[in-house]
Design goal:
10-stranded antiparallel beta barrel, 52% strand, mainly beta, 203 residues, globular
């Protein structure tokens, strides 16, 4: 069995309860829509086999902590990894703050971008944040189910926080998606900022 076939088999096992769901679609688009379900829509591009386990929609909770805030704070989050048959993943993360009882306080951070695997096994990650920050990360596949990144460039609008650099580690562990993010910002050295544990709801 090839590594691609094995990756698809494992994805089938992980998605036993969610394989019937996908992203909402417009039925009058003149080009293929994005899909977060490997069973529907365009075929996955071979360039994406190294990130195949991520394809889907994930939802759960996390924590934000940093010396310049009064936290830690709990947050809820949904992350979408989708594709349209071309050699990149479409990425979107939406977050909301939670109180101690787990009730929603208000919408929080949003980020959108693209994961772009390259022939030399690096991955370009481009992210745009609603807070006025644009980041370019370079990363790599660590294992079949984990990926790590660090920023190569950070661009800030005049009203954005003073972010200098960031590092991220993503992993699919026992069928769930987990990540940790470190940031150097607001005059602080690189240190933990956010982490989350998310369960698959689509794909």
């Amino acid at each position: 069995m090839s590594s691609g076939d094995e990756a698809i088999r494992l994805a089938e096992e992980r998605a036993a309860a969610t394989k019937a769901r996908n992203l909402p679609q417009f039925d009058d688009m003149p080009v293929p829509g994005d899909t977060a379900n490997l069973r529907e829509g365009a075929n996955l591009n071979d360039a994406l086999l190294g990130v195949l386990p991520l394809v889907g929609v994930w939802r759960g909770e996390g924590e934000i902590v940093y010396p310049t805030i009064d936290g830690p704070f709990r947050f809820g989050q949904q992350i979408t990894f989708a594709h349209d048959g071309r050699p990149f993943l479409v990425y979107e993360a939406r977050s909301w703050l939670l109180n101690e009882a787990g009730e929603v306080i208000r919408p929080a951070a949003r980020e959108q971008g693209f994961w772009r695997p390259q022939e030399d096994d690096t991955i370009e990650l481009l992210l745009t944040h609603n807070t006025g920050i644009v980041e370019l990360y370079y990363g790599k596949v660590r294992t079949q189910t984990s990926w790590e990144f660090e920023t190569d460039a950070v661009i800030r609008s005049a009203t954005a926080k003073d972010v200098k650099a960031s590092q991220r580690l993503y992993g699919v562990v026992n069928g769930d998606l987990a990540y940790v993010e470190e940031r150097a910002m607001m005059g602080q050295e690189m240190q933990p900022h956010a982490s989350a544990h998310l369960k698959r709801i689509v794909g």
